[in-house]
Amino acid sequence: MIAVAWIIFAAVVLAVIAFCYVIVKYYQDRSESEKIPTIITTFALSLVLFCVFLIPVDIYSVSSTEGFSQEDIQTRVKFIRYAYYVLYSLVLFFSFALVPFAYFYYEEDDEDITLGQKIWGGLKYTIFTLIIVIILMVVGIVLAVVKPAEKPTVANAKNWIANLVKTTPADGALYFAIAALTTIGFVSWISYTAYGLTAFPIGIIRGRNSVSEDRNDLSSDLETTREKKRRLRVNI
């Protein structure tokens, strides 16, 4: 029975990874796809789905305790806890290391650049990203350790500060780093969507491009296609 359960578990894992791979391949540009970013994106998306699927497993494990001994229940709870630790640790690793590396690796695209240079370029900017995250976590540790000198007068603020002080330095550092990065991403998202909401009606009012602009765009696309064809012939 245990072997059958593990076989079903392995089948579900493979099915999720295959599903994520199909989704990534469907939405990416086939003419500009890269193997390493595709693999990293597939596993990152699969990891997120695993974290989502673990929640109903946790609920089922806690609710279905009838017929099991206390030792078996503790073993199941411990297994779920370790699964949470592993999955969310991998989420942090992918978020702060592998996903930035995949992005910077893909951006290092030049006809004269080698694979080793692309990997080094991706690692270089990824290390810079990790340094920023480490700085934010150090600031978070300082904020978590240092207690406020005066107690707030508002009850809600007092409770919030009390809960913040009770957190460990590691929790405070992690919360602050994630909050800072989320704030940066939220500001970027607001700026990007604000520009899009402004440019969309203006683009509708202006209408389509002129004939000369269309001709220049087609010439640029044709030159890019010819360059890719030449590179493929050289590699063959």
Describe this structure in words.
The chain has helices at residues 2-27, 35-63, 70-107, 115-145, 155-166, 169-206, 211-235. With 236 residues, it is mostly helical. The chain has two domains: 1-107, no CATH class; 114-209, no CATH class. Helix 2 (35-63) packs antiparallel against helix 3 (70-107), helix 3 crosses helix 4 and helix 4 crosses helix 6 (169-206). It starts with a helix and ends with a helix. The mean pLDDT is 77.
Task: Give a quick set of tags describing it.
236 residues, mainly alpha, 7 helices, 84% helix, 0% strand, extended
Order of helices and strands: HHHHHHH
Q: What can be said about the biggest beta sheet?
A: none
| Tally of DSSP helical segments | 7
What's the number of structural domains? 2
User: What is the radius of gyration computed over CA atoms, rounded to a whole number of angstroms?
Assistant: 25 Å
Q: What general form does the structure show?
A: extended
Strand tally is 0
Proportion of residues in β-strands: under 5%
Low-confidence stretches: none
- Class based on secondary structure composition and strand pairing: mainly alpha
In angstroms, what separates the terminal alpha carbons? 52 Å
Provide mean pLDDT, rounded: 77
Q: What percent of the residues sit in helical stretches (DSSP H or I)?
A: over 70%
Task: State the gist of this model.
With 236 residues, the protein is mainly alpha-helical. The chain is built from seven helices and no strands.
Indicate the topology.
Elements: H1 2-27, H2 35-63, H3 70-107, H4 115-145, H5 155-166, H6 169-206, H7 211-235
Helix pairs in contact: 1-2, 2-3, 3-4, 4-6
